[in-house]
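2024-03-11 09:14:02 DEBUG pipeline.ingest accepted 1 chain
2024-03-11 09:14:02 DEBUG pipeline.ingest length=198
2024-03-11 09:14:03 DEBUG pipeline.predict start
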Amino acid sequence: MKIYLIRHGKTYANERGLYCGSTDSFVSPLGFYELETRKNAGLYSTAEKYFVSPLLRTHQTAKKIFGNVDVIVVPEFAEFDFGLLEMKSHDELLKMEEYREWIDPGNIGATCPGGENNNGFNKRVMNKFEVVKDEAAFSGYDIVILCHGGVIATIMDTCFLEPDIHFYKWLPKGGEGYALSCDSSGKIVEYSNISLDK
């Protein structure tokens, strides 16, 4: 069984380096071009089921890559809610004390100013991921999860405790991600990159 984790295509917010979580942004022309390039390179595998977050950019990505497939919307796979940080850059936020506290490495479980709690985000993503993974393993089918960078990094950082890989190192580029191989019990045994750089 395979689980394909694919990040949505690049958005204007991604291009400008802005925090964009709950904001319902859309894939940019550059993002669509990159998705087309990756699709033509044979980067994507089909599956029996396709899961997307509620946000438009994942639906657009699914349609661009896989056409008019039926998708299952999973609210728990929405991106982290950055609250007061939404659509702002790191540089412009550095003057905000709450932001500096939130990004402090010692505040791993902190709550984003006006937004989501780091530990709460991890819990909502992983609880639902385990349910989806186990159902797929029971049925023996491959699945695609089209979601967000933070969601993918959370799954990878939790499933593969590699001390040399920091959470942010797991963030894939737009339209890229990871292929997880599972045994018959649903246990994840290995992963490979879905990337043009491999």
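2024-03-11 09:14:41 DEBUG pipeline.report Residues 2-194 form a domain with the Rossmann fold fold (CATH 3.40.50.1240).
2024-03-11 09:14:41 DEBUG pipeline.predict end
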